[in-house]
Design a protein that fits this description.
Number of strands: 11
Radius of gyration: 19 Å
CATH architecture of the largest domain: Orthogonal Bundle
CATH topology of the largest domain: Cytochrome Bc1 Complex, Chain D, domain 2
Structural class: alpha+beta
Strand order of the largest sheet: 10-9-11
Bound molecules: heme C
Amino acid sequence: MGTRVISSTAAKLAAAAGLAAVAAYATVALAGPNDNELAVDGQKYMTEVPGAKDGPLEKVYSGWRFRNEATQAMQLDDFDNPGFTNVETGEQLWSTVDGEAGKSCESCHGDAAESMKGVRAQMPKWNEAAGKPLTLEHTINNCRTQNMKAAPWKWESNEMLSMTAFIGLQSRGMPVNVKTDGPMKAWHDKGKEIYYARVGQLDMSCSGCHEENYGKMIRADHLSQGQINGFPTYRSKWQKLGSIHRRFKGCMKNIRATPFKVGGDEFTALELYVASRGQGLSIETPAVRN
Ligand code: HEC
Ligand code: HEC
């Protein structure tokens, strides 16, 4: 394919999806979030909340509302939700002794249903010792290396995904509630800068898709606001759970930009900022997406 000038957002969206520019205008049609209600075991989840007064979004929607009914259905029943295999693994790891200190997570934290309740909803969170905000993955690895004297888990390993899924589940239904003031402010602002920066060969920003064009279709993919209240998320495309940073990386690759380092400061700042855009949405971990 030769060089072509991509001028309109619609054409860029199509290019990101690997479509010919001409077909794009017909393909990119408006279709808002659907009206389906997310309830699991009788518990209702907030998939739509008013945006912050000074924020960029009038309404904040969970990505669940943009998925088709078959994908949505997989999240309505924990027995159909493939993410629960990892939740079970995470529960086993919680009480497994590992490392030179001879401890398990449970040795110090006891019942996760109590000690980990609300933790996912507040991540990333300021950590005084580190002098910066830490994601859930960072926090778990700190406990492994410092408190258990065990080897850290790789970010995208089955162990880490299982543990973040298990811990995340303890906050399911609770509203996203990250702090963005005090020492977090600079990180929030840095994440915001990254969110709006146009990068890559397609010269696009996160906002170009998830703020200006959510609701539109890119081929079969219904663009959401790119919220992170359901992570780690099971994706049929991945055939497994994936982390927030994996998703960020994939989106950056789609616009042919060089992704930031998974677990690095840029993605941590971006995670904090994206979380703040979804304040009030229910945690859905482990969510199901296509
Ligand atoms: C030797 C004791 C010890 C062990 C073992 C341990 N932790 Fe921790 N953990 C702590 C302490 C102390 C803190 C900081 C104080 C707090 O928030 O509870 C902490 C904090 C945390 C937090 C942040 C909680 C919050 O409210 O922000 C998470 C998440 C966590 N640990 C997960 C784990 C996991 C998962 C494991 C096992 C892989 C584990 N920890 C093993 C002692 C331990
Ligand atoms: C070319 C358009 C485009 C750009 C630019 C883009 N994304 Fe995405 N993103 C998508 C599509 C398509 C999906 C899958 C459908 C959906 O959930 O919106 C997606 C999904 C996501 C999701 C998963 C949402 C969920 O509910 O599971 C997150 C999070 C996300 N993007 C974040 C970002 C961030 C952060 C950036 C900037 C670094 C970005 N995206 C840039 C197109 C884009």
